[in-house]
Amino acid sequence: MRVRGVGSLTDRITALRARLGADVFQKVAGDEGPGRRERIHNAPGPRWFAEDRPIRRVHGDASMFVGGLRALLLQSLHPLAMAGVAGHSGYRGDPWGRLARTSYFLAATTFGPDAEARAVIERIRSVHSRVRGRAPDGRAYSAGDPHLLEWVHIAEIDSFLRAHQRYGSRPLDQAGRDGYVADTARVARELGVPDPPRTEAALADRIAAYRPELAGTPQARSTARFLLLNPPLAIAARAPYALLAAAAVELLPWWARTPLRLPYLPVVEHTLVRAGGQVVTHGIRWVMAA
């Protein structure tokens, strides 16, 4: 027996949840998302990572939304990597297309069959071979440069891991964190990084080694303003996005904030920002589960 009004309210909540989940998925995965999801999760064949591997736990969690924003901010601090993004990625003209390509790469290599993972890796390496030019300071860059590839990789996995430890549904212990870094090293080697770090401590050391090369260029600061203040979103989506953005900034180390001219407000960040990050990641996790 159903109490009058309760069933209809439940139905409306269920429908709203499904619609919001579909909207988020479309933004993240693009128009090709359903077909790619079918191939990645349902196609037969061996996978690179077993179901119990840490990379699957991290990359399948809503905390990736916070980690992805942090990764873009951190990656922008390398002037040559930033020049390549500014000159070739089209992130301003087609930010959702770039997000869809990135999410496809992560999903295919983490969850997909070997053939799907290798196909997306080959496409990326082909694109990288054509991305080259000169940064505003006159230095030449190439997206296929192993040194730049490693910076992009370590900035990304450091961001994903830190976001997961703060906002993930099941944070990893030390063995799990080392396992995650080791898992991602497999993908990095396939992309052309010769010796990626394999433990959390080695990851921290490698990031520290890059710090003398990092700088807050005008391109980097412009990218930060675009990502944090001017995202191409509907009005209704701006409030939850602002919570994600604040959570991403809060996870950045102090040495990354100063060159990007990002504020540091410890009392607010340790209370309101972290609470907001929990709320928005819980919300994304709830709607995506539908």
Describe the structure.
With 290 residues, the protein is mainly alpha-helical. The protein has one domain. The protein is built from 14 helices and 2 strands; from the N terminus they run αααααααββααααααα. A two-stranded antiparallel ribbon has the order 1-2. A hairpin with a 5-residue loop joins strand 1 and strand 2. The chain is globular and about 65 Å long.
Task: Kindly state the number of beta strands.
Answer: 2
In the sheet with the most strands, the strands line up as 1-2
pLDDT averaged over residues = 90
Strand residue percentage: under 5%
Instruction: Note the run of SSEs as H and E.
Output: HHHHHHHEEHHHHHHH
- Indicate the percent of residues in helices: over 70%
Unreliable runs:
none
The tally of structural domains comes to 1
How many angstroms does the end-to-end distance come to?
A: 25 Å
| Largest sheet report | 2 strands, antiparallel
Number of helices, counting only DSSP H or I runs of 4 residues or more: 14
Radius of gyration: 19 Å
Shape type: globular
**Category by helix and strand content:** mainly alpha
